[in-house]
Design a protein that fits this description.
Two copies of one chain form a homodimer. Chain A is mostly helical and about 140 residues long. Helices cover about 60% and strands about 10% of the residues of chain A. In chain A, strand 2 and strand 3 form a beta hairpin. The radius of gyration of chain A is 20 Å and the shape is globular. Chain A starts with 14 loop residues before the first helix and ends with a helix. At the A-B interface, helix 1, helix 2, helix 3 and helix 6 of A face helix 1, helix 2, helix 3 and helix 6 of B. Chain A binds a DNA duplex (20 and 20 nucleotides) through helix 4 and helix 5.
DNA sequence: CTGTATCCAAAGGGATACTG
DNA sequence: CAGTATCCCTTTGGATACAG
């Protein structure tokens, strides 16, 4: 901890160890950037879907309601760059592209599942809390 | 599955069961909205910090590098509304406010920890993948 | 200390058109 | 089919000022 109350962490800052030490999270922490990407709206859904095996671009697009071609393409490229999915293009006419999760991506998917399961099972409690809050604020 | 290829799910759509059925995720699925909020950049960090016990507004602000007063305030209110954190204001001068995670919030925090731990331990692999990707695309 | 309100710049992301 | 490029509107979020 430096004198101004923030910590300067070299190498790969570990957010959890920063917590244990009582340090501040560096704003430019690589782990935080990665966290932003993997917690991303579309990344979560794509990884979840790719747990079932290979899927084609169009299949992903169809099954993720509301995603635009641009965002799907963009997110897939980011996932590929991070080593979370692989892309295989077959030279058919028209071209066939298949995406699948890498072992690294599958591992992340397992962690994300927990978050998704939480959201699904706890949704009623969240909605009840919202109603209570709104009633309290509104009244 | 309706004829246009999308599914209309009533009540609380379950994304995982939608996957198992091969249905599309509804774009307006409440679970997806909740997922967006809990995967949010700031929510994750706040919940992580509140696992240690109570923290004051200023302490949170100090320990989360780069968060603005506006976003901290805004995110805390959203978390409170969802029943994930509680807010206790003491009528001191100036006022003292303490936040802590609810049981529901703590439970979510456990799930988020897995995601964070993944990010921290797998970061080297992700960075290696990025270098490989950039080399392949650049070259 | 813990907020809220406002302004405004920057980023996100949809729609559309086009290509191998 | 599976993208890329562009336009442009919308949302996000920081900075600042102000208040209980």
């Amino acid at each position: 901890m430096t004198q101004d109350g923030t910590s300067t962490i070299v190498g790969i800052p570990q957010v959890t160890s920063a917590i244990l030490r009582g340090d501040a999270y560096a704003a430019d922490c690589p782990t935080r950037r990665l966290l932003d990407r993997i917690g991303d709206k579309w990344s979560v859904l794509i990884l979840l879907l790719l747990g079932d095996g290979e899927l084609r671009f169009g299949q992903l697009k169809q099954r993720i309601g509301g995603i635009s071609q641009k965002m799907l393409s963009q997110t897939l490229r980011a996932l590929e760059r991070d080593g979370l999915v692989t892309r295989h293009a077959e030279a058919t006419v028209p071209v066939t592209v298949r995406y699948r999760a890498t072992p690294l991506g599958s591992d992340l998917r397992a962690a994300l599942r927990l978050m998704i399961d939480w959201a699904e099972t706890r949704m009623p409690e969240v909605q009840a809390a919202q109603r209570r809050y709104d009633a309290r604020v509104g009244g």
